[in-house]
Amino acid sequence: MVIDMKILGIESSCDETAAAVVEDGKTVLSNIVASQIDEHKLYGGVVPEIASRRHCENIHTVVTGALIEADCTLNDIDAIAVTYAPGLIGALLVGVSFAKGLAMDTGLPLVPVHHISGHIAANYISNPRLKPPYMALVVSGGHSHIIEVLDYTKYRIVGRTRDDAAGECFDKVARTIGYPYPGGKSIDDASKRGNPEAYTLPHPHVAGSEYDFSFSGLKTAVINLVHNSLQKGEQLNYDDLCASFQKTISEILVSNTIKAAADSGYKTIAVSGGVSANSGLKKLLSDECRKCGFEFFCPEFKYCGDNGAMIASQGYFDFLSGKRADESLNALPTLPITEV
Fold this sequence. Notes:
By secondary structure, this protein is an alpha/beta fold. The protein folds into two domains: 154 residues, 2-Layer Sandwich (Nucleotidyltransferase, domain 5), CATH 3.30.420; 166 residues, 2-Layer Sandwich (Nucleotidyltransferase, domain 5), CATH 3.30.420.40. Helix 2 packs parallel to helix 3 and helix 5 packs across helix 6. The two termini are 22 Å apart. The mean pLDDT is 96.
């Protein structure tokens, strides 16, 4: 490993403009995030065009702030890491274009980072003793994957969602109930007041793919419950419904992940992504890991959502593996982590 290497990480794949400086892949010197939640909340979800415009407005200030907070200049930086896939194409292009310009101006190496591998790397920051190989569950608004982490830069997709991502499911259910965007926190808060056994909800399975997920049926079942009650003039107990929904989606995620790890002979499981901040999911996965004698890892709350520190961390490992990009680097809205 290279010692005392500082990586500037830039993230703009969705609605957070973020930058950070991380040393040796695990020590965070700065982590600045400009969130757009309040604006997108007005529309019930992320508006791609608005997100792109705000990234353009914020990125210079955010990157400058990350350098100032880290008490360094670009002369102290060894490489620039940037999220180039997957994500909203307009949003990604802002970060990629800015990073390319910075790299060309300074002569610093440019390291392209896959967004999902960045989420996985968030655990190296919060849990420095975590080392591959292990099984990872990555759950966010756009992704739900079970990934075998073979090395810091090598992965195998074991399971994935065939339709909605878990975070997307949370947001759509929350919007139906009338909760503001992002819906995950509202559902989590309501779940703490409700009875998780109040409603029996479906646990969809994917025939022939025992580790894959399908959440559209669960989402539809909850939405239909809400709509039918409104049409009949009945009042559902939303706290109970949220608790039952959160319990069900957590059970689906956890059971598949535990099975995938056990079948592959792994004794270590790490969870990451925005939904990893959910208290119900964390508790259930932690409890099941304890029962099975598995070691469980989860990032600190501030590293669960999109942030620059996770991109800088993964950028360090990608840099050591020889990964580089030049001025031809382009943003990609979709790209499997295995095709990086």
